[in-house]
Amino acid sequence: MPDYYEKTCTAPVNIAVIKYWGKRDVSLNLPTNSSLSVTLSQDNLQSKTTIRADPSFSKTRLWLNGVEEDVSASKRIQTCIKEARRLRSLYEQQLLRDGNSEVVPLSEYNLHICSENNFPTAAGLASSASGFACFVYTLAQLYSLPNSLSELSIIARQGSGSACRSLFGGFVAWEMGVNNDGSDSMAVQIADEHHWPELIALICVVSDAKKAIGSTVGMQVTVKTSSLLKERIECVVPKRMEEMVKAIKDKDFDAFAELTMRDSNQFHAVCLDSFPPIFYLNDISRAIIRLVEEYNSTSCNYKAAYTFDAGPNAVIYTLRENADELVGLIKRYFMGEEREQIPSGFRADAVPIFE
Ligand code: 2P0
Fold first, then answer.
1. What domain range is 318 assigned to?
2. For residue 334, what pLDDT band results from cuts at 50, 70 and 90?
3. Are 220 and 314 in a shared domain?
4. Which CATH number covers residue 342?
5. Element (H, E) at 188
6. Residue after which a domain boundary falls, among 159, 191, 223
7. Does residue 61 sit in the same domain as residue 169?
8. Residue where a domain stops, chosen among 191, 214, 236
9. Do strands 186-191 and 171-175 pair parallel, antiparallel, or not at all (unpaired)?
């Protein structure tokens, strides 16, 4: 028997096209509406976690991007560990009942957890999504849990809502569920990562500063104060979810693009309708919207769709055939000394971009 048990896994970022914003239960991270996202390939943005379980560890410890964090101060981490340990303990009992005599009591060992992102943390680039998805997945691998990814997504959700969607590749819905205990609030895959290879995402890093208002606090302000949120969750999102699933299954970029842009706009409208208002977009974000509008106006079909999360950084979905043209436009108007005036009048600072 080895002295310790260790696993290392990576998990990707997901970018929502139907946004999650609002909780009906804060401690369980139960959302006020379902959401849907695209999981990005892991080439550029990913979280990587190593977890070691060792009977000689005197306590569970956590390092994030090389800096030790206080595990006892993070209720979310503790919840994920507690839930994964509960499943491991059930699994150990099952193995014992099945006659396995050498079951390692991993659920009783303390853990050393080391997690890092290869991109700015907390800058509205979904770092908590890939981080918690990676943490829960790595722990499930270490514990050899037989549970499905949707079942694991229930644990990841309690770490960070959007994390539940990063358990799957491709196109992923987070079904809000109706149960008060969260047992049906989980991620399901709509289509896998091979379904629509022509679709690509360009990430425009407008700012890598930590966001001014965290999502958890921002959502609570919105739930308490925005009347527009009620309209969104009751009348808009349910229909939009159905339309988005159809657009993805049909690989209908026109429908996908319009739904994506409308939903991003409504999410930011709901932020503005909160009191005090929440601002995530800045002048560069708005200039990017203007540029995509101008670009789309050159064709009778949509060629690109912007979306923004809880920060100023843009993600632009487009089809591979348009990617070079679009990257050229963004470089021309946003990057370097030679940048030009955007036709509609905005001038912006440098924007590093990668696919
Ligand atoms: C989303 N966002 O659907 C939306 C769009 C930001 C805007 O999910 O409190 O970090 O950890 O559940 O998941 C960001 O919220 O919030 C988010 P918690 P989370 O991707």
1. 199-354
2. confident
3. yes
4. 3.30.70.890
5. strand 186-191
6. 191
7. yes
8. 191
9. antiparallel
Say yes or no: CB of residue 46 within 6 Å of ligand 1.
Answer: no
pLDDT tens readout for residues 111-149: 999 999 887 654 456 668 999 999 999 999 999 999 999
- What are the pLDDT digits (tens) for 269-323? 999 999 999 999 999 999 999 999 999 999 999 999 999 999 999 999 999 999 9
User: Ligand 1: distance of its center to the CA of 121 in Å?
Assistant: 13
- Does the Cβ of 310 fall within 6 Å of ligand 1? yes
Q: What is the DSSP letter of 168?
A: S
State the CATH number of the domain containing residue 27.
3.30.230.10
Residue 110 has pLDDT above 90, yes or no: yes
Q: What is the pLDDT at residue 353?
A: 36
Q: Give the tokens for residue 176.
A: 């809000």
Q: Specify the number of domains making up the chain.
A: 2
Cα–Cα distance measured from residue 77 to residue 28, given in angstroms and rounded to the nearest whole number: 13
285 lines ligand 1 (CB under 6 A): no
* 239 and 267 together in one domain: yes
- Is 268 strand, coil or helix? helix
Do 258 and 244 form a contact (C-beta atoms < 8 A)?
no
Determine the Cα–Cα distance for residues 187 and 315; give it in Å rounded to an integer.
22
Contact at 8 Å (CB) between 201 and 38? Answer: yes
Q: At what angle do helices 127-142 and 75-97 cross, to 10 degrees?
A: 20
**Average pLDDT score over the chain:** 91
Q: Ligand 1 centre and the CA of 215: distance in Å?
A: 6
Q: Side chain identity at 242, as an amino acid letter?
A: E
Q: From CA 125, how far away is CA 309, in angstroms rounded?
A: 8
Rounded to whole angstroms, the Cα distance separating 268 from 310 reads 9
Whether residue 197 is predicted with pLDDT greater than 60 in this model: the reply is yes
